[in-house]
Every structure is written in C-alpha cells, then in structure tokens.
Hints:
Blueprint: H1 2-36, H2 39-67, H3 74-89, E1 93-98, H4 106-126, E2 132-139, E3 142-150, H5 171-180, E4 184-190, E5 193-201
Parallel strand pairs: 1-2
Antiparallel strand pairs: 2-3, 3-5, 4-5
Helix pairs in contact: 1-2, 3-4, 4-5
Amino acid sequence: MEERNRIAREIHDVLAHSLGALSVQIQAARAVLTDQGDVARALELLGQAQRMTTDGLKETRRALLALRGGTPRLRQGLADLGAAHQNRHRAAVSFQVSGEPRSLSADAWLALTRAAQEALVNTAKYAPHQLVEVRLEYREGRTALTIANRLPDPAGGESPGLETANGGYGLAGMRERLRLIDGSLSAGPHDGKWVVDAEVPQ
C-alpha cells in the first residue's frame, strides 16, 4: 500500500502540474484568437505550450526513472529547471552549489525536485520577471535547497503562500512529502525576499 501511494503521488504531481499548466496556456491562446484576433500572439502562446509539453515529457521520464530506482544528478536536474523557468518566464535564475556532491535516495531526489518546481511556479505567479536565486548545499548529514526571490510590492496584490493554483499541488504538499522521509520545508519572508528552504537527510 505504501508503494502504491508513492506511485500515485508521483503520477499526480507530474500530470497535475504539466497538464494543468498546459491547459492554461491553450486557453490563453484561444482567448487571444477569439477575443483579439491576434494570430502572432496566439502562435507565440502555442509555441510556449509545445515547449511545456516537451518539458512535461522529460519530467515524466525522470519520475519513471526515479521510481525504478535510478536518480539523475540533482545538480543537473535543478539547472535544467532553472533554465526552463528562465526561458519560459523571461526571468534570470542564478544557481550555486556548495559542498561535496553525493548520491541521494530516489525519495530524497524527488522531494527536492518537486519542491524546486513548486517554488519556481510560485515565483512566476507572485514575482514575475524577478531574479530567482537557487542554492544547493551538501552539508554534513543533510542536503539543503534554497530558492529565493524579491518580495513583490505589498500594494500590488497577493503575497506568496504555501498553496498554488494546481488544486492541492503546492508547497504544503511538498512539506508533507518531505516529512515522510524525515526532511523539512519552510517558506516565508526574510530580508525582503520570499525564501523556500527544503532539507533531506543524506
């Protein structure tokens, strides 16, 4: 039952995230065509949707590999996520690694990868076009991931939170996932930035 729940969680996370984002993009393209007749903008949105589909397929393959017991290098996976965010949202992403890299369990790798994805989704939603700072630290007995971005203007509307628009696929779900493997996740304001910190044992 535990393994079935784990597989179901992975399928939900990958598909809910990828298909939800793709649906929003296609709806936007349709609205641009029907309401504004802007073919050039609609084609741009559809091009972005196609790239999102490619990213979703890559993520599905990564999840399947992890479920089979193999884990790609976390450093490369995070770098790929940062590059995709930068291309999709036109926001700069800095990426730093410290400590001696080591292999992680499949559960730890997936937990940090999902936390990074959700933090980037929140950044795009609440602080578009802002620099995103990603830091991976290999500490003694722990591996830590920090993602930070400048806080939006309080007068500008919503503030970041632990939930996003994907129907429960949010940082609160990531916190729950990390707790299952004796990890931790925190998210909140610090020194004018919104900071997400995730840690796993190893």
